[in-house]
Design goal:
By secondary structure, the protein is α+β, with helices and mostly antiparallel strands. Helix content is 18%, strand content 32%. The strands form 9 sheets. It has an 11-stranded antiparallel sheet with strand order 7-6-5-4-10-11-19-20-14-13-12, with no helix packed on it. The protein is flat.
């Protein structure tokens, strides 16, 4: 009976299971067919049938179960790894609920987060899956709940909104089931499970025009599931260009489906109210199309098709691309297959919303078409700068008409503005003015920089060609000073922009581009070229707009190949600079040469050469190393000659450096109280003063005839300085005859961001004697190691390390944790003898070190100064505090109450508090003093100290406090037996009270482990101190 019941039950269960399987199979069977009837489908290519075979790469379909509770999916693709279907609210790979059928015969669920990272998710709502892999094709079927309560925001409710389907395939499956980036992707239009698809598709062999959008098909979805723009039949190829559709391709004549860098085609509808655009190219980032009102990148509306399967809209303001809302667009479709990125969309020709960024493309309005491609994508998915990957059309067009365009890169380009300035150098000095670097180069092939100019017959305008082989910028300056200061600059940049700026000293300041017309910028085959016409003058009282009218002369300066800043402005060009050999009138014809001549002489009425010939005979000089050749191998070199009246001194300062070389006149013999002149690689002569070891920039005055060059790695400044000024400025030293100063040369330190000089490290040499610079002298450098008090600083550091790392650590630790040490020394408890001896050592070392550092810095220590000297300032401030606490604690010890007196307990706490504070501050001050990192711009206290010395001190401090924790924890676990007195009583010696041990009593025992720890502590502390002192002196 029981067996019969069991059999009946099993039979019933089998029948139920069979009926369920038949029901599911019936529903699943519908997923293999019925596209456009009961199923929403996407497939690639769109002409393939419902099966993956032949040219058909992938097919996906979605339907709904009879009860409306499940979405039924079928996926199939030519791949052996995975095929995935993403459900997303926008036609991109971000924010997508993804379901993948993998080679492991399973369905996995994941989430595409912003930034396009794929994250694994639990398989909630998934059932009835079936996965197969055969003949290189993965096919699967599964069900997904249409909605679930409390499923989270990543589980989209398919009843609440329309969603896009995105199909991808061909990446790799990770061991955890995750997916790598796909090799093929196709985007379908929106689907709505509550609305059935349209009628069956036409034959795959018949070209099909998509239906107009309808309530049941809001974006023109074909029965095949792809989004085709409404009302047009724009193919992806170039067939029909100039006949049935407008088009533009790069390179010209390429095949858009195989080898075009960029391709665009457009067709208006019959009413010319909409334009359907196809934009595609071979790229893995983006391809973009711009409608330009200016003919260049400025004032352009841009549509970009990105590899993240998004259609983006932006506008160009100058050379800055600004993302804006995508509007007036429908029927967008994005695919990225076999390396070809393609977007199709329909744009209305105009909107009545007063948005100036939405250009009116109505019939009769013409725009230049610009294609750009293969720039980087930013992290947020927006497009980045495309560099040279840009092509404007040869003319502006009406996009409601049919046209086949060509690009502008023609060899026979001429310059607008009424002149015919060629791009080459033909006619230089005859029909046009010109200046080239290097001299005699061919501007179209090998010039670093080239400029030519021609005035119109009335000499009211000048047409300028500026070009060079560069991937950043080439610039031309009109200089009133002959140098970089007081210069009006025009820069041609690789972002295809013409920029105007002015130089104030060595600072370049962007200013408005005005008085310019007919500008054209190209970047072809590595040659960047700008042509523009500038009026010679403006009546607007703008002093930055130089008057180039006939009779006004300016030095021409060419610079090139500096970096471009993030905002597109030009950065510092370093040595890529060449001034003309003379000032010229640019309304006249002239062929210029550069100034880099070997026979340069110094202005100011003297003939000081750049070499060392005549040192000690016709001029004073000082070189490092001694006897070097200033034009080849000197680290630093200076020469000086006074005029016959000895009222002016002409100085040459030079060295092999890429930052700066400086000369100081010192009253102290060291760095303090020094007037400094620095020649920098930014081609500037700077003046400053040293207060202590802090360098403070000050006004450059009393100087004339300055000239700065940087040639073949040799930086050289020539200038003339008056010997004195009657303005009561104490920072302007009196160099008149009879006044002697020590000469100091420094070199190759860093330059700060503002161009001022920074700390030079060990690159410093002081003359062996002070000199009268109105006389002739050949100087030698100092040979002792005590230059600038370095030896005194070494001893200061060594004594402070000995005081606070060694003596103070041992003295305080012994008094606090080791009063139970057995035995006596000199009739005193051993702990007391060690404590008093160590603290006496602290006092002696601290006072001697304090005196040494005062001598080294000349009796004063600068506190504050620039923010970059914060570590140095903290060292000085806390150093004074530590010395003060040390003296206070000694005074308290000498005046302490006798044991048992009422105030003895107060003394004990005060003595402990002041001593511990001094110790902790001493350790911190040593850390600040040993901080000597290359990344720091503050002046280190020991320029020769190795950076790892700081970490040795850090290691000791950490180890020290760990041991203190262990020592303090000991009584909590192992309380010693007996009683202990922390006081040392007094006894009379010749009538004078003195500390004496307390009466004998039972002494607590100190475990051997603690004695071993104490010995180890002493050994490590002494060893660390020795190591740091050695580092200070090596």
């Amino acid at each position: 009976m029981e067996t019969s019941s069991i059999m009946e039950t099993m039979t019933l269960i089998s029948l139920i299971f069979l009926m369920f399987a038949l029901t599911v199979g019936s529903e699943a069977q519908q997923l293999g067919s019925g596209c456009g009837q009961s199923l929403h489908c996407i497939k690639t290519p769109i002409t393939c049938n419902d099966q993956v075979a032949g040219d058909c790469q992938a097919v996906a379909s979605v339907g709904v179960s009879a009860d409306g509770t499940k979405a039924l999916f079928t996926l199939s693709a030519k791949t052996t790894t995975y095929i995935a279907l993403g459900i997303t609210a926008s036609p991109s790979m971000g924010e997508a609920d993804v379901y993948a059928c993998t080679e492991n015969n399973e369905v996995v669920r994941s989430w595409n987060a912003p930034g396009y990272s794929n994250e694994m998710e639990t398989r909630i709502g998934v059932s009835d899956e079936s996965v197969s892999l055969a003949d290189g094709v993965i096919t699967c079927q599964f069900s997904r709940a249409v909605s679930l309560s409390d499923a989270g925001s990543r589980f989209f409710d398919l009843t609440s909104a329309n969603y896009y389907l995105i199909m991808s395939w061909g990446g790799q499956v990770l061991p955890n089931g995750g997916l790598t980036r796909h090799t093929g992707t196709f985007v379908g239009s929106q689907f709505d499970l509550s609305t059935p698809p349209q009628s069956p598709p036409p034959s795959a062999t018949t070209p099909r025009v998509a239906d107009q959008p309808s309530p049941s098909n809001p974006v023109g979805m074909t029965p095949g599931g792809t989004s085709v723009p409404s009302g047009t039949g724009v193919p992806s190829g170039a067939e029909g260009c100039g006949v049935t559709m407008g088009c533009f391709s790069v390179p010209e004549g390429c095949n858009p489906d195989t080898n075009c860098d960029a391709f665009s085609s457009w067709v208006p509808n019959s009413e010319k109210t909409e334009i359907t655009i196809v934009l595609q190219g071979r790229t893995d980032t983006y391809v973009a199309m711009g409608f330009s009102r200016s003919g260049g990148m400025d004032n352009t509306e841009v549509y970009a098709c990105t590899s993240r399967l998004a259609l983006l809209r932006s506008r160009n303001d100058g050379t800055t691309n600004i993302p804006i809302e995508l509007k007036g667009v429908s029927g967008q479709e994005m695919t990225h297959t076999n390396g070809i990125l393609r977007c199709t969309f329909t744009r209305v020709v105009s909107l009545d919303d007063n948005d100036g960024s939405f250009f009116d493309l109505s019939s009769g309005n013409e725009h230049t078409i610009i294609l750009v491609w293969s720039g980087p994508l930013q992290s947020d998915g927006n497009i980045g700068y495309h560099t040279q990957n840009r092509q404007p059309s040869s003319r502006a067009i009406d996009v409601t008409a049919i046209a086949a365009l060509e690009g502008t890169n023609k060899e026979d380009e001429t310059t607008p503005g009424g002149t015919g300035v060629p791009s080459g150098a033909e006619g230089c000095g005859v029909t046009m003015g010109c200046f080239s670097v290097p001299e005699g180069c061919n501007p179209d092939t090998n010039c670093d920089a080239f400029s030519s100019w021609v005035a119109n017959p009335e000499k009211t305008e000048i047409t300028i060609v500026l070009q060079g082989r560069t991937d950043t910028y080439v610039a031309m300056g009109f200089s009133r000073s002959g140098g970089m200061d007081n210069t009006e600059v025009y820069a041609c940049t690789s972002r295809l922009a013409l920029l105007r700026s002015r130089n104030d000293g060595t600072t370049n300041i962007p200013i408005e581009l005005k008085g310019v017309s007919g500008q054209e910028v190209t970047h072809t085959n590595g040659i960047l070229r700008c042509t523009f016409t500038r009026v010679v003058s403006l009546d607007d009282n703008d002093g930055s707009f130089f008057d180039l009218s006939s009779g006004n002369e300016h030095t021409i300066i060419l610079v090139w190949s500096g970096p471009l800043q993030g905002n597109g402005n030009i950065g510092y060009h370093a040595q890529n600079r060449q001034p003309s050999s003379r000032a010229i009138d640019v309304t006249a014809i002239a062929a210029l040469e550069g100034t880099n001549k070997e026979d340069e002489t110094t202005p100011g009425g003297t003939g000081v050469s750049g070499g060392a010939e005549g040192c000690g005979v016709t001029m004073g000089c000082f070189s490092v190393p001694e006897g070097c050749n200033p034009d080849s191998n000197c680290d630093a070199f200076s020469s000086w000659v006074a005029n016959p009246e000895k009222t002016e001194i002409t100085i040459v300062l030079q060295g092999r450096t890429d930052t700066y070389v400086a000369m100081g006149f010192s009253r102290s013999g060291g760095m303090d109280n020094t007037e400094v002149y620095a020649c920098t690689s930014r081609l500037a002569l700077l003046r400053s003063r040293n207060e202590g070891t802090t360098n403070i920039p000050i006004e450059l005055k009393g100087v004339s005839g300055q000239e700065v060059t940087d040639t073949n790695g040799i930086l050289r400044c020539t200038f003339t300085r008056v010997v004195s000024l009657d303005d009561n400025d104490g920072s302007f030293f009196n160099l008149s005859s009879g006044n002697e100063h020590t000469i100091i040369l420094v070199w190759s330190g860093q330059l700060q961001d503002n161009g001022n000089i920074d700390y030079h490290g060990q690159n410093r040499q002081t003359s062996n004697k002070p000199v009268d610079v109105t006389a002739i002298a050949a100087l030698e450098g100092t040979t002792n190691d005590d230059s600038g008090g370095i030896l005194l600083r070494r001893f200061h550091g060594a004594l402070m390390v000995l005081a606070w790392l060694c003596f103070a650590s041992i003295g305080l630790t012994t008094a606090r944790y080791f009063k139970d040490l057995p035995g006596q020394t000199c009739s005193k408890p051993k702990w007391f003898f060690i404590h008093r001896s160590a603290m006496s050592g602290v006092l002696i070392c601290c006072l001697v070190a304090f005196i040494l550092i005062l001598i080294a810095v000349g009796g004063s220590y600068p506190i504050g100064g620039s923010p970059t000297n914060v570590v140095r300032s903290l060292h000085g401030i806390f150093g004074f505090i530590v010395v003060g606490l040390c003296l206070i604690n000694v005074m308290m010890a000498l005046l302490r109450p006798h044991p048992g007196e009422p105030r003895r307990n107060l003394f004990n706490w005060a003595h402990w508090g002041v001593g511990t504070s001094a110790h902790l501050l001493g350790l911190f001050t040593i850390l600040a003093g040993t901080a000597n990192f290359e990344s720091q711009s503050q002046i280190p206290l020991f320029p020769v100290l190795k950076p790892y010395a700081f970490w040795v001190v850090v290691g000791f401090v950490v180890w020290h406090f760990c041991l203190w924790i262990i020592f303090a924890s000991y009584p909590l676990f192992c309380k010693p037996s007996g009683e202990r007195s922390d006081d040392v009583t007094l006894k009379a010696v010749n009538g004078t009270p003195e500390e004496s041990p307390p009466p004998q009593q039972e002494k607590p025992s100190l475990p051997p482990a603690m004695i071993y720890l104490c010995s180890a502590y002493y050994a490590v502390t002494i060893a660390t101190t020795i190591v740091i002192i050695i580092l200070i002196f090596i």
